Automatic annotation (TrEMBL):
Its EC number is 1.1.1.100. NADP(+) binds at residues 13-16, 91, 156-160, 189. SMART domains: PKS_KR. It is an enzyme of class 1 (oxidoreductase). GO terms for molecular function: 3-oxoacyl-[acyl-carrier-protein] reductase (NADPH) activity; NAD binding. InterPro entries: 3oxo_ACP_reduc, KR_dom, NAD(P)-bd_dom_sf, Sc_DH/Rdtase_CS, SDR, SDR_fam. This is 3-oxoacyl-[acyl-carrier-protein] reductase. It comes from Clostridium carboxidivorans P7. The lineage of its organism: Bacteria, Bacillati, Bacillota, Clostridia, Eubacteriales. Homotetramer.
């Protein structure tokens, strides 16, 4: 059985939802975890304690990933505490939905800044660490709407499609140094992000899911675990949908 004993993982936006599930899953496989959060320090500190109880090390680091300097501090802090970074999971994300004709310029910019530039910022800073190590795995959380589009999510789908392009370009640039870069594209996952949607929207979405259920954060974490483990060593530049068959 493969595991992640002694590996260091940085998970952005890990204070709740999918990021938290990823942190717990990888900690359960033996990795030490850096839990990044933007504002929820109490949830992040509680998660540190939960992870330490699994017998591994954990550290919470506050940083807004949309800031180039903030992402730099996050990566530097992770190296300072654990000495290396084996896996980076770019999970932090926000939504500011609205139809195109009503979408404010700042709502477009903000979603791109956090969801797309935030991932770039972290990859940019972690790449020098991984290049020196001559190994690493970068896992970017995209979305099926980055593949199929979604009315009301012009900003979000553009950012998530951008993540896919970035994943493939970085995969090509870093492959020769034994660094893999892949993306996971979740469908509808039950978290705070989707809780706010109307019952009607949820009902319509459910009709389009062949497996007839919404996903859980653990469904996504399981695929991130596969991409973190040596089982996926020969996979790079790919996108794996975790969506119950929503987008094929
Ligand atoms: P969530 O419950 O809203 O959690 C988002 C996390 O991101 C929180 O921990 C939040 O921390 C953090 N965050 C937000 N802005 C940040 C920033 N600027 N810097 C650092 N951290 C920041 O969302 P989720 O549903 O778990 O989503 C996680 C990822 O999966 C996102 O990239 C999302 O786009 C993607 N995704 C979700 C779904 C879904 O159905 N839920 C589907 C497809 C893709 P603070 O609260 O501390 O700010």
């Amino acid at each position: 059985m493969e595991d992640l004993k002694g590996k260091t993982v940085v998970v952005t936006g890990a204070s709740r939802g999918i990021g938290k599930a990823i942190a717990l899953k990888l900690a359960g496989l033996g990795a030490n975890i850096v839990i990044n959060y933007r504002s929820e320090s109490k949830s992040a500190e509680d998660l540190v304690e939960e992870i330490k109880a699994l017998g591994v090390k954990a550290e919470a680091v506050q940083a807004d990933v949309s800031s180039f300097e903030g992402a730099k501090n996050l990566i530097e802090k992770a190296v300072e505490v654990f000495g290396r970074i084996d896996i980076l999971v770019n999970n932090a994300g926000i939504t500011k939905d609205g139809l195109l004709l009503r979408m404010k310029e700042e709502d477009f910019d903000k979603v791109i800044e956090v969801n797309l530039k935030g991932a770039f910022n972290c990859i940019r800073h972690v790449s020098s660490v991984m290049l020196k190590q001559k190994c690493g795995k970068i896992i970017n959380i995209s979305s099926v709407v980055g593949i199929a589009g979604n009315a009301g999510q012009v900003n979000y789908s553009a950012a998530k499609a951008g993540i896919i392009g970035m994943t493939k370009s970085v995969a090509r640039e870093l492959a020769s140094r034994n660094i893999t870069v892949n993306a996971v594209a979740p469908g509808f996952i039950k978290t705070n992000m989707t809780e706010v949607l109307s019952d009607k929207a949820k009902e319509t979405t459910l009709k389009g899911i062949p497996l007839k259920r919404f996903g859980t954060a653990e469904d996504v974490a399981n695929v991130v675990a596969f991409l973190s483990l040596p089982y996926s060593d020969y996979i790079t530049g790919h996108v794996i949908n975790v969506d119950g068959g929503m987008v094929m």
